[in-house]
UniProtKB/TrEMBL annotation:
<protein>
    <recommendedName>
        <fullName>glutathione transferase</fullName>
        <ecNumber>2.5.1.18</ecNumber>
    </recommendedName>
</protein>
<keyword id="KW-0808">Transferase</keyword>
<comment type="subunit">
    <text>Homodimer.</text>
</comment>
<dbReference type="InterPro" id="IPR036249">
    <property type="entry name" value="Thioredoxin-like_sf"/>
</dbReference>
<feature type="domain" description="GST N-terminal">
    <location>
        <begin position="4"/>
        <end position="87"/>
    </location>
</feature>
<dbReference type="InterPro" id="IPR010987">
    <property type="entry name" value="Glutathione-S-Trfase_C-like"/>
</dbReference>
<feature type="domain" description="GST C-terminal">
    <location>
        <begin position="65"/>
        <end position="199"/>
    </location>
</feature>
<dbReference type="InterPro" id="IPR040079">
    <property type="entry name" value="Glutathione_S-Trfase"/>
</dbReference>
<dbReference type="InterPro" id="IPR004046">
    <property type="entry name" value="GST_C"/>
</dbReference>
<dbReference type="Pfam" id="PF13417">
    <property type="entry name" value="GST_N_3"/>
</dbReference>
<dbReference type="Pfam" id="PF00043">
    <property type="entry name" value="GST_C"/>
</dbReference>
<dbReference type="GO" id="GO:0006749">
    <property type="term" value="P:glutathione metabolic process"/>
</dbReference>
<dbReference type="InterPro" id="IPR036282">
    <property type="entry name" value="Glutathione-S-Trfase_C_sf"/>
</dbReference>
<dbReference type="GO" id="GO:0004364">
    <property type="term" value="F:glutathione transferase activity"/>
</dbReference>
<comment type="similarity">
    <text>Belongs to the GST superfamily. Theta family.</text>
</comment>
<dbReference type="InterPro" id="IPR004045">
    <property type="entry name" value="Glutathione_S-Trfase_N"/>
</dbReference>
């Protein structure tokens, strides 16, 4: 068995990390990455070993050869640029589109603390999706993975309902039906949900 070409430091409770896992699976290169779990709830991102990898103590981190990337959007673009074949549906080829449609993503591990700004952002996403089938283009792209990962966490305490956000709800259901969703998203979302329920029980 060959040595993995990449190393991904991640925790499934991190929406940006989950977006990277989805991209790796969708691009068919997950088996080429060594996955190193960093337990955020147990503060493993502050360990001396991990701080040598990323002094900013955040996940995800992707190492590929001599390159180390610590921003999830940069990682998504790098994976597409490096591994997507020409015309691959997930790639965002236009630089201007990339910049304009970097709608949002975040380190949301406690979604109840982010409700009001997130509501405004979902309102904006609703307007975007009235103009385009997906968040960046009229086809699925890694931008959808990034946004979906955050919304999947927010949905725990702020349900994405069709009466309030009809286009977002339609898009949300479609992304959830993708073959990579259960494998790469559900475990992290369920873990966040359990944490949130424990907090409510302790109030």
């Amino acid at each position: 068995m060959s040595t993995p070409e990449m190393t991904l430091y991640y925790d499934e409770v991190s929406p940006p990390a989950r977006s990277i896992l989805m991209a790796l699976s969708a691009l068919g290169v997950k088996d080429r990455a060594k996955l190193v779990h960093i337990d955020l709830f147990n503060a493993e991102h502050f360990s001396q070993d991990f701080l040598k990898v990323n002094p900013l103590h955040t996940v995800p981190v992707l190492q590929h050869g001599d390159l180390t990337l610590t921003d999830s959007h940069a990682i998504l673009m790098y994976l597409c640029d490096t591994f997507a074949t020409a015309g691959h549906d997930l790639a965002i080829p236009d630089t201007l589109t990339r910049a304009k449609r970097k709608v949002f993503s975040g380190e949301i591990t406690e979604p109840s603390e982010h409700l009001y700004p997130i509501e405004e952002t979902i309102d904006a996403l609703e307007l975007y999706l009235k103009e385009s089938k997906y968040s960046a283009l009229d086809r699925l792209s890694v931008a959808d993975f990034s946004i979906m990962a955050t919304l999947a966490s927010v949905n725990i305490v702020l349900p994405i309902t069709a009466d309030r956000w009809p286009r977002v709800a339609e898009w949300f259901d479609e992304i959830q039906a993708l073959p990579w969703y259960d494998e790469q998203q559900r475990a992290g979302v369920e873990k966040i949900g359990e944490m949130f329920r424990e907090q409510l029980n302790n109030v």
